[in-house]
């Protein structure tokens, strides 16, 4: 495709000649009208000359076959891109992963990590396997609350969210691969069109004009000029004679009359010169391919008559004109560039798309204005920016500027060191932070966020925690709450029974007397009944007693002894 672009530049001279041919035909028709009587005698000579023309056009087709060969070599460069995209998996080293293939546990920070991380923006759990947040734990008793708070601090939600991260990343890579496949299909079409050109030019001068037109569909000026040539040719063999004669001798020779019609076979050498003039174009393509770097593919759009191409540039919005042969930069060893003004300036760099920029070693930039500026970085998508060292940015307007950060999704931003933002508009701004899901915000270091203030999410299908830093689910929290409730009920019952015992009314006893008292107590909905017995010794210096209190489900017993002296 790049070779075709260079060919379109070389054909600008042909466009000018064809335009002058159209003007020459208009003038020649006037002078031809006076010599039509002698035209028939020269038709035979014209036929002979056209036979020579067909032969020359055939040689032109042979020369253009070199172009097809150069275009087909582009597929070799494409294999390098597939390799670079395959290396994308190494760029997601900061992703949260399961601890084992069975997906039964997740350790935030990786297996063996000793520094816990914080999971933020967690919605209140509802189902038995949901994760719980700090707000739910705060309602427990002081002792239990302290324990639950420490569990909440170690909350790790990657069990369910790693699947989302993996799926999103896989989808992004699949989309990138699909784009590469589409590009490969487009290149195959280009090869087919170039082959079509070679075939069509061999059928004759009229078919050659049509073939050149199909080779560069984007050159509207050439299409118009060649169309004018086709229209002029259809007016008769006499017009064709005047057009071919004007290429070599000019319009002035027509004024001498039809006596020069016999020189038609000589004038047909102008067609031969057309083939000769195209030879430098083929040489230029060969020289470009030998400059030490893979030539970038340029899809022509908004072309101007002077061969320049319209573009909005790498950052601006104003359309400007650039020379497609010079605005691109592919200078690195084993570098590949494809697209208008694409830049692959370091070893192993790959840039695909208009104004795509891969400016450091082994970087990959795919998409309009995609930028990968640090060694090993990958940027895929319109205006994707992978500027950290190294980083991965996948999705339109995604930004990965923190070192070792990953941003996947339209508008996702991973600006903190070792940060991961997955989902449209997700933001991971703090060091070692993870934002999972569209609109999620992780702005505190060493935290995982699955939402934002006012847009919290529940984490479902959380396995029961085992280790001290594991996440707990609602089922485990409910079990703790039930234990607290049972302790509370038992405490309330004990208070009620104590109140019942202390409420027994016992009369004053003298030596040798005995007495019984009954009491009733109630506390927080718990009722109790108590019975107390007391006995005084015959001497009156000692006494003993016993009591029992019950709620009907719980029973308490008390026994006491007393002694006095003077």
From TrEMBL:
InterPro entries: Adhesin_Head_dom, Coiled_stalk_dom, Pilin-like, Serralysin-like_metalloprot_C, xxxLxxG_rpt, YadA_C
Subcellular location: Cell outer membrane; Cell surface
Pfam families: YadA_anchor (PF03895), YadA_head (PF05658), YadA_stalk (PF05662)
GO annotations of cellular component type: cell outer membrane; cell surface
Every Trimeric autotransporter adhesin YadA-like C-terminal membrane anchor domain range: 513-565
All residue ranges annotated as the Trimeric autotransporter adhesin YadA-like stalk domain in the record: 119-159, 458-487
GO biological process: protein transport
Presence of keyword Protein transport: yes
Keyword field: Cell outer membrane, Membrane, Protein transport, Signal, Transmembrane, Transmembrane beta strand, Transport
Domain of life: Bacteria
Similarity annotation: Belongs to the autotransporter-2 (AT-2) (TC 1.B.40) family.
Protein name: Hemagluttinin family protein
Organism: Glaciimonas soli
